[in-house]
Specification:
Distance between the termini: 28 Å
Bound molecules: zinc ion
Largest sheet: 5 strands, mixed
Order of helices and strands: EEEHEEEHEHEEEHHHHEHEH
Number of strands: 12
Oligomer: single chain
Number of helices: 9
Structural class: alpha/beta
Radius of gyration: 20 Å
């Protein structure tokens, strides 16, 4: 039906495991998901991957499938396809994921950092279509990303480039998931916004956040309260946007992108954040960088899947 253009994509997440069949245009033609078997470790999760592949019809489409692309949280070594370690998934240290899946499926396998895979997805099929230089930043539980420079996806040594969430922006700032202090992620992730919301809920006697039980306030609650006109929540989003614009100015100075593409759960508030992001960006970026566009991602949760699928398809299309 579709010739030899299909690729399997698997998105390994700390809570969800997803699989999809993706065609050459980046369209998802079948999908399935399950809760990641965290306790079962990599062996159980690889079995889950097989089950999801059965559900999306991998056997039926076998002759049309060029390979399998996996995106996973880092740090991982995409040159060897080995997970280095995943903070939210115990037991994955040094697990040879690409080799294991290649043996199991008898297909070429690419394992890519989820931020880099999503950058590729947005570049090829989303908000970065047609650009030669872009930085993708996903702002959700953490902050991740990927970089395209001179029309190429940047990998660096062991494929570890683009860990944009761990730029240190305030050495005396809050502790990051990586153990350092004041990383971009520790200051501006959805988790950081939620923590600011919890502190505001505990500190204020009135307003939308104070009406919530302080310990359960999420980033989504802060955004909803700001949309409802709550002043405290609006000031938290303004601070969030200022950190984002500051971080984006660092990224513009490093990579000189045509656009910075913002994805992740917090980008659902992109319309609220954008004016203050731009204000901070223009305050900190040197004049030639101030025309850099800051845009919302277009592919949502699918960016990593379609980006990983495109990576394995490209790899198979290259001679040698
Ligand atoms: Zn960090």
């Amino acid at each position: 039906l579709r010739g030899k253009g299909l690729a399997i994509a698997i998105d390994l997440g700390g809570t969800q495991l997803r699989a999809a069949l993706v065609d050459a245009s980046g369209a998802i033609v079948a999908r399935a998901s399950a809760a990641t078997d965290v306790a079962g470790g990599p062996q159980a999760t690889v079995v889950q991957m097989s089950e999801l592949c059965a559900r999306i019809g991998v056997e039926e489409h076998r002759s049309g499938i060029v390979g399998l692309g996996v995106c996973a949280p880092g740090p991982l070594d995409s040159e060897t396809g080995t997970i280095i370690g995943i903070p939210t998934l115990p037991g994955w240290e040094d697990f040879p994921l690409a080799a294991t899946l290649a043996q199991k499926f008898g297909l070429p396998v690419v394992v890519e950092n989820d931020g880099i895979a999503a950058a590729n997805g947005e570049w090829r099929f989303g908000a970065g279509r047609g650009l030669r230089h872009l930085v993708y930043v996903t702002v959700s539980t953490g902050i991740g990303g990927g970089v395209v420079v001179d029309g190429r996806l940047l990998h660096g040594r062991r494929g570890l480039a683009g860990h944009v969430g761990h730029m240190i922006m305030a050495p005396d700032g809050p502790i990051c998931s990586c153990g350092a202090r004041g990383c971009f992620e520790a200051l501006a992730s959805g988790s950081a916004l939620a923590e600011a919301g919890r502190q505001a809920a505990a500190a204020h006697r009135s307003g939308a956040l104070a009406a919530l039980p302080p310990r359960v306030v999420t980033a989504r609650d802060v955004v909803a309260a700001a949309r409802g006109g709550d002043g405290v929540a609006t000031s938290l989003l303004d601070a969030e946007a200022t950190w984002l614009g500051t971080g984006f100015s660092n990224l513009a100075h490093l990579y000189s992108p045509e656009a910075i593409v913002m994805g992740g759960g917090v980008s659902q508030a992109f319309d609220l954040l954008h004016p203050k992001i731009v204000a901070a960006f223009e305050a900190y970026a040197m004049p030639p960088f101030r025309t850099t566009k800051i845009v919302a991602a277009e592919l949502g949760d699918n960016a990593g899947l379609v980006g990983a699928a495109a990576l394995v398809r490209d790899k198979e299309a290259q001679p040698g």
